[in-house]
Amino acid sequence: MDDNSAQQPARDKGLAGKLALVTGASRGIGAATAIELGRRGAHVILTARDDRKLEQVEDTIHAAGGTATIAPMDLAEPDSIARLATAIGGRWDALDILVINAAVFVPLTPVQDIDPRAFSRALTVNVAATQNLLAAFHPMLKRAEAGRVIGVTSSVGASPRAYWAAYASTKAAFDNLLLSYALENANTTAIRAAVVNPGGTRTEMRARAFPGEDPATVQPPENVATFMANMIGEPFPNGEIISVKDAR
């Protein structure tokens, strides 16, 4: 997050009255997106495992004149998503925006050396939790005037790459789930769903994947957050992977 973000005023209220849920909202792209949606008037529900960092993001949203609610949780924990959906559904009728950003990175390694436990957790968070989120919040998204679902992916899921198989295969499945959901709802509901490929972005996950990279050579997460917030405010292409780089 930008050190000066708390002092920046809300820029517009184009999302006033909207309810947004952002997963992985404690840092990186998730935190920046939550802050941007809050600045634009949405009430943002923040989920991640680190409650302290969630509180920091919540404070930033409040300081900019927005509103937010934190919901610390582990997407891999059984029934956590169902409990979250019950809590949110008990307070609000509809969910306007769902940003599925949380993901677990698996260290680069040959296929035969993949750590089964690490791979299993990545499959749970990156794939199974995605389906669970869509299932749990589909009724609320349908009740929204125009439900919007955005998934944050990685280019490594689009084609095989040596040593990336564990993480990349989970993102390929993630993309397929979200795009299939988009197509299934295209003619029966007002829900639109798409996948955003942010490209190189200055995050902790990126630093683990590319430890020798100069962070200054890639974009800050705020760029991606602005792109996605702009996208949510428009009738974006349904059922497509949209690249931030190509849209510049």
Q: What's the story with the biggest beta sheet?
A: 7 strands, parallel
CATH class: Alpha Beta
First and last CA, distance: 21 Å
**Fraction in helix:** 40-55%
- Percent of residues in β-strands: 5-15%
Molecular shape = globular
Task: Give a count of the beta strands, DSSP E runs of length 2 or more.
Answer: 7
The radius of gyration computed from the alpha-carbon positions, rounded to a whole number of angstroms, is: 17 Å
Structural class: alpha/beta
CATH architecture heading: 3-Layer(aba) Sandwich
- Compute the average pLDDT: 92
Low-confidence region ranges:
1-10
* H/E element order: EHEHEHEHEHEHHEH
Question: How would you describe this protein?
Answer:
This protein is α/β, with parallel strands linked by helices. It has one domain (5-247): Rossmann fold. The protein is built from 8 helices and 7 strands. Helix 5 links the parallel strand 5 and strand 6. The chain is globular, with a radius of gyration of 17 Å. Mean pLDDT is 92; it is low at 1-10.
Topology diagram in text:
Elements: E1 19-23, H1 28-39, E2 43-48, H2 51-63, E3 67-72, H3 80-89, E4 97-100, H4 116-143, E5 148-152, H5 165-185, E6 192-197, H6 204-209, H7 221-232, E7 241-243, H8 244-247
Parallel strand pairs: 1-2, 1-4, 2-3, 4-5, 5-6, 6-7
Helix pairs in contact: 1-2, 1-7, 3-4, 4-5
